Amino acid sequence: MPSLTAIKPKIPIFLRQPTYSVTSSDLQKWHGWAKNLVSSVGSSFVESDNGPDSTLLCRELNWLLEDSLENRSSSSCFSFSACKYDTVDEIENVMLRISLDDLYQLWKQRIEDRRPFQYIVGCEHWRDLVLSVQEGVLIPRPETELIVDLVSDAVSNNEELGQGLWADLGTGSGAVAIGISKILRIYGRVIATDLSPDAVSVAMFNVQRYGLQHVIEVRRGSWFEPLKDVEGQLVGIVSNPPYIPSDNISGLQAEVGRHEPRLALDGGASGMDYLLHLCNGAAAMLKPGGFFAFETNGEKQCKFLVDYMQNQIAGSFSTKEVARQVLSAVQLNIVISMKSCTRTSIPGEEMSRIELSSSVSN
Amino acid sequence: MSSLIFKSVSKYHNFAHLSGKDKVLASGFGVWKSLFSTQAAAELSTSDGITVDGIVASNWTILDESESDWKSHAAAIAQSIQVIKRRLQWKKLLVRLDLLSVQLNKPDLWDDPVHAGNISREHGSLMAKMKKVKALEQELLENIDMIKLAREEDDTELESEMLKALLQMRRNSNEKEQEALLSGEHDSCPCYIEVQAGAGGTESMDWAKMIMQMYKSWAQRHGYRVTVVDEMPGEIAGIKRATIKVDGEYAFGYAKAEVGSAQAGDGFTHVQINESDLRIERFRAGGAGGQHVNTTESAVRIVHIPTGITATCQNERSQHMNKDSAMAVLQSRLDQCEMARQAQINAQHTQSLTDIGWGNQIRSYVLHPYRMVKDLRTNYEVTNPDSVLEGEIDGFILSYLSTLLDKGEDCP
């Protein structure tokens, strides 16, 4: 096993020192060039693989500027470029956190290589957090914010959950682990695991940035392997494991398919290799009454897994046992039901519930 | 919901392609420091019994600032003090202060801490206003005393010093008059400004964008921080709607003039929102989401089911933050609705400028064949629409506020 410190996490742009001085007219030149590049995209990305349109790319451009400028608020002078009363004219030089050359380079990568915006700026805004991300680490998705909401609901109804030991399996950037650790009461602890050394080092960086070293322990390893010492002691398990069927990987949006780690996406032939592994192993790890929430590919996987946990693994996860476990699955695929239901109870089991997020498409 | 309709008005030419509907939303939130002392408002006078009202009543001639005549300076300052008092609705303010003092002295006040907090906050804020005016009066009268003394004792040095002091007071008084225009309870708060294109397709969306730009420039001129909360571009050009948040001193105080709501927020509390009345919609790309899609699109729309009022935010970089931001907008929209409802009720009883404030055109813009922007409420007009569209709207705002407030109460 390579040393954890071998991989040094990259510093997101917004955390770097503003050491590059450029004239405001040079920066405006770059901004104009970048905007032209954006308008050349039009809706072509949307049409090819449901990628970003030019409106969204324009917004990203403003955010890149916001992260790069020493004085965040002065970025608004550029965003309102139509404005004749332009305060930028009065500023001769502005301080940047990256060089102008890098700005040209990065924006070219964004448009021509479809490099994800979050890898460009080195961070993702997720819930009220700003998490460092880089190649090799899955960019946390807004849908996954819901897992933290579900944990928050569960903890507020159950004091024991707030004071126990939790695990976030396949933590990636550490997003879910950090999100729930802020909810847990004073005695709550989280172990965050990931197989990828990149993910482990980035998660540790994020944990330290939020000063949560005493709450979250990051361990390297596959799923339950690094948790042998806490078997049967967990009050909660959360996970966003890879769940995309292998055949679908090649057709993914360019930002995802070409740049994000396959390790965090590919769930095997059915997409459920790891989901099933988690369902099979969760009961042994949890205390009676423990909480288990995971993200799935959508309604189909969701229904299958609920049925599987109720019937197929009855031996280790008996129906009666399920009754005391709070099971939550987050439905993601909303193709089938656009305004899908809010809550379904498993017949006869009042304690168990499946939460299907109600989402409405634009 | 108030809506201001901007239309191009042209006598000779069908140049009506500059029409749009402009909705301005101004709502405040903020925190006030409280003061607990109470003090009777006795009338101040000089040693020989001259009062501020007395000076005004004596009709001393007001000469140009450059003339070294103490009576002229004193008369100008006294007039300013009267204007300030009128704008603060002085008589009402004193009555209200008395009432609040009585309540503050009740022994059971703190049985209801929320109510007590509100009372002492309002009391503190009114006391501070009253003290400012009193200090001004006192300074004027003391200067007059000193100048008389100097003349009696033939102390020319002291006399010229006091003249200078009076001149300084006179010069500062304009600013203080203006400050008094912005003395509403929520005036110092940040606010939201919303512009929505009306019927008229691309042209009206284009116009809406120009109006939004006008507010952005106006805010930048004041040194306010502007954040775009929500912006929906038009298909071809312009915007369908946009909401900005304006942060800075007196942002709400100024912006409220743009909806014609002068009483906004006097003693106003936020409308309660029940979580169960909300439908929260997270905008997502069609098809599979989650790991399949990497998008920075994180817009959130909140629908308040009972009223159908919605708020959308897509400016923040996470759904979580967009939701918080949209909630704040929704709150201010609901508050705004409530204020509008109350203003309508009040308008039935009192004939005031606010009667035409809600849902009506407040300004007409003529770009051709002649050039003019005119406020339909005050008849204030300028002949340079470009400067207005570049954000020079303070003239309109101040003239509206002063017309409104100076009419409000007879001489103190």
TrEMBL record, chain A:
| The keyword Membrane is assigned to this record | no
Gene3D superfamilies named in the record: Vaccinia Virus protein VP39
Methyltransferase small domain location, by residue?
163-243
Provide the alphabetized UniProt keywords: Methyltransferase, S-adenosyl-L-methionine, Transferase
InterPro entries of this UniProt entry?
DNA_methylase_N6_adenine_CS, HemK-like, RF_glutamine_MTase_cyano, SAM-dependent_MTases_sf, Small_mtfrase_dom
Provide a Gene Ontology MF annotation, just one: S-adenosylmethionine-dependent methyltransferase activity
Which GO annotations describe the biological process of this protein? methylation
| One Pfam family hit | MTS
Q: Which CDD domains would you find in this protein's record? A: AdoMet_MTases
Protein known as: Methyltransferase small domain-containing protein
The species this protein was found in: Salix viminalis (Common osier)
Give the organism's phylogenetic lineage.
Eukaryota, Viridiplantae, Streptophyta, Embryophyta, Tracheophyta
From TrEMBL, chain B:
Q: Which GO terms describe its molecular function?
A: translation release factor activity
Q: What superkingdom does the record give? A: Eukaryota
Keyword hit for Protein biosynthesis: yes
- Which keywords belong to this entry? Protein biosynthesis
**Residue stretches in coiled coil:** none
Q: Which positions fall inside the Prokaryotic-type class I peptide chain release factors domain?
A: 284-300
How is this protein annotated for GO cellular component?
Answer: cytoplasm
InterPro entries xrefs: PCRF, Pep_chain_release_fac_I, Pep_chain_release_fac_I_sf
Family membership, please give it: Belongs to the prokaryotic/mitochondrial release factor family.
Q: What name does UniProt use for this protein?
A: Prokaryotic-type class I peptide chain release factors domain-containing protein
The species this protein belongs to is: Salix viminalis (Common osier)
